[in-house]
Design goal:
alpha/beta, TIM Barrel, six-stranded parallel sheet, 11 helices
């Protein structure tokens, strides 16, 4: 009887050990699936020394499990940590913007903004901005973006996430941008477009945007302006137009004309510059634009909700 009890106890210990080991393996199997082939009969004949060895191994595994659990907790909280870092970053930007506004520093600020994307050409824009370590703001739309408008053989769907990954501000330009086809037919039409684009950006980047630009500028809203702004405010949105542009939203004959147009409109300590990331001309002069602004003591930054340039 004693022998049988001893064997049962040993078997129970072994089964418990195997169950705990399986739990440990399942934690690791977030990425990998592991198949276990265990010969129970062979395990029953483990001697005391082997059991002690397994116990030591288990203690080591338990330590590793605690480390894994700690890492998993960190991963679960990473979004919150990222938001804290972003909030601190924008707080610092706001403090810097205030100093620029009050002329407490010799620097100025330029917010580069790009409308109507993403396009296949947006890849090239991101490359230039990354080369110069510049963060900008992209006012995106969603309609007709599964295939790139400027390259139908390519998908533009992933460009939302790519743009966000590089640290640029993701902003809302309504889902459709259909200025003359219903966008401004009513307040509800406009707001529904904003909500639809907000969801698309969230689904593709994990970011909830709170900055919007009216397609065509706020003047395009006409008599609906006040009611739309009121609803945007209720949704927690701020809106922004622009203070400078190179004219790439219309006809620009040459790179020189585009550069001259921009220079004529740059005259404030804080500028919001309008570009479109479908323009080959703007892409070709973007390095010159960045260097020109930096030489004029402008710091190039991404827009953020608390900025004085955002109407709330």
């Amino acid at each position: 009887m004693d022998k049988m009890e001893s064997r049962n106890k040993r078997k129970n210990k072994l089964v418990n050990f195997l169950n705990i080991s399986l739990i440990i393996l399942l934690i690791v199997a977030n990425i990998y699936f592991i198949k276990l082939n265990i010969n129970i009969d062979k395990k029953r004949n483990l001697n005391i020394n082997e059991l002690n060895s397994q116990k030591n191994n288990f203690n080591t595994s338990e330590t590793k499990t605690k480390e894994l659990e700690k890492e998993l907790t960190h991963l679960k909280n990473i979004d919150e940590e990222i938001n804290e870092i972003k909030n601190e970053y924008f707080e610092n930007l706001k403090a810097f913007e205030d100093k620029v506004s009050n002329k407490e520093v010799d620097y100025k600020i330029a917010y580069l903004t790009f409308d109507d994307g993403p396009y296949y050409l947006t890849h090239k824009y991101l490359e230039v901005l990354e080369k110069y370590n510049v963060r900008a703001t992209f006012f995106t739309i969603g309609l007709d973006k599964e295939s790139c408008y400027d390259n139908r053989s390519k998908s533009c769907k992933e460009l939302y996430a790519k743009t966000a990954k590089y640290g640029h501000t993701m902003a809302n330009h309504t889902y459709s941008h259909q200025i003359f086809y219903g966008l401004y037919s009513s307040t509800n039409s406009f707001i529904n477009n904003v909500k639809k684009q907000e969801k698309l950006i969230k689904d593709r980047t994990g970011i909830t945007t709170n900055i919007v630009r009216f397609p065509g500028g706020i003047a395009s809203a006409g008599s609906l302006r006040n009611s739309i702004v009121k609803e945007l405010k209720n949704l927690g949105y701020g809106w922004v137009d622009w203070t400078a542009s190179n004219g790439d939203g219309g006809f620009v004959a040459s790179k020189q004309d585009a550069m001259n147009n921009l220079k004529k409109t740059i005259n404030e300590d804080i500028e919001v510059i309008l570009f479109h990331d479908y323009s080959n001309i703007t892409l070709s002069i973007l390095p010159d634009v960045i260097e020109y602004l930096q030489n004029k003591n402008y710091v190039l930054l991404p827009l953020f909700y608390e900025s004085k340039m955002i109407n709330k």
